[in-house]
Each structure stands twice: as C-alpha cells, then as structure tokens.
Amino acid sequence: METIIAASQNRGKIMEMEAITKEFGMHILSRGEAGVADVEIIEDGATFEENSLKKAREIMKLCGKATIADDSGVMVDALNGGPGIFSARYAGAECDDKKNRVKLLREMEGVPYEKRTAKFVSVISMVYPCGKEIVARGVCEGHIAFEERGTGGFGYDSLFVPLGYEKTFAELAPSVKNAVSHRANALKQLKVKLEKGND
C-alpha cells in the first residue's frame, strides 16, 4: 500500500478520495497525521488546475513525499460559471459552507429549474519528490435545487442534484455519490494515468 499525503485539510474530501484510491493501492494520510506544519496556502490561481497543483507542490516540499491535492467547485450556468474557483469562499473571507449555500440560493432566486443547470468540477493533482506531476479533471453535470436537501456530504452537496437522479448529493448514499461525483470521475482519470505511467 502506497502512502500519499493529502494537501487538503477537508476531512470530507480526504474520506472521499480514500474510499476510491484504496481500490488501487493508495492510503491517504492527512497533513496532521503526516506531521506536516499547518500552513495556509493562498489559492490565487486562475483555474482549478493551477490551484490544485500549487497545493500539491507546496505540501510535497514540506513533507518530501508524494502528495495529492484537490481543487473543486460548482459552476452554475445562470451565474456565468460562478462561483467556480471561488466556491469555497463565495460568501466572503469569513464564510463557511452554510453561508456559501445561502448566498447561492439567494443569487438563484426566481430562476426556473430548467435554467438551474450546473456542474461540479474537481481537479486532482499528484506531485512526487522526483518532479513527476499528474493532473486529472472530473466533471459531474446536474442542477441546483430550490432548497437544501439532505444531511450527508459537505460544501454544496445539499443543493446539487446530479443528472439522472432526483436526490441531492447530500441525500444519496456515500457509495452512490462516490460512483458518480466529479471527484470520483477525476480519480478515475487519475487511475488511468497512473496505470499508463502518465504517458
């Protein structure tokens, strides 16, 4: 079992990644479990890819071990792709998941369901001490619900209804979400690249 250090401090993300990466021999340790200093990484990239790679590179430099990072967010068509890379801090510097969801619902007031199309995007990067880097992107299409539904998951899960389902991510069983989510799709791409040796 290969041990990978997670750049993320989001326990929900780590659990989702671990549920999938263990299938191909990877055990993920959090920063804390790996004894990595609690540093703040400024996510100033213009894309999910830039932010994901920056997080992985900086934590890899601190721990000297292979590191995995995820940068993700929800892109809403009615908001011209927002909040996008700003999803985690959508409601301001002192925001939390709840405040972000409240703002999103407020911004979407009056928008009919057929125009509430959105997609979750996840970009997962793996950076190795030898300089090797792998980047994988996953997308999950869906809609934004009219109100929060469900108690599972985190972030915008209680507002996002994936295509083909009537329930939000927060209402679906973790095993179902982990089969269809943006993060699952990114991890599947990562697996393919790992198996190909990143050719």
Can you offer a commentary on this structure?
This protein is an alpha/beta fold. The protein has 6 helices and 7 strands. It has helices at residues 11-21, 31-34, 48-63, 97-107, 174-180, 182-195; strands spanning 2-6, 26-29, 67-76, 82-83, 117-127, 133-144, 160-162. Strands 1, 2, 3, 4, 5, 6 and 7 form a 7-stranded mixed beta sheet that branches. Strand 5 and strand 6 form a beta hairpin. The model has no long low-confidence stretch (mean pLDDT 92).
Defining traits:
alpha/beta, 6 helices, seven-stranded mixed sheet, 199 residues
Gist of the model:
By secondary structure, the chain is of the alpha/beta class. The protein is built from 6 helices and 7 strands, in the order βαβααββαβββαα.
Percent of residues in beta strands: 15-25%
Shape: globular
Largest β sheet strand count, sense and barrel closure: 7 strands, mixed
Report the strand count. 7
Q: Helix/strand/pairing class, anyone?
A: alpha/beta
Number of helical segments with 4 or more residues: 6
Query: What's the quaternary structure here?
Result: single chain
Average of pLDDT:
92
The percent range for helix content is 25-40%
Unreliable stretches (pLDDT < 50, length at least 5) are: none
Taken in chain order, the helices and strands follow as EHEHHEEHEEEHH
Taking Cα atoms only, what radius of gyration do you get, to the nearest Å? 17 Å
Taking the alpha carbons of the first and last residues, their distance comes to 23 Å
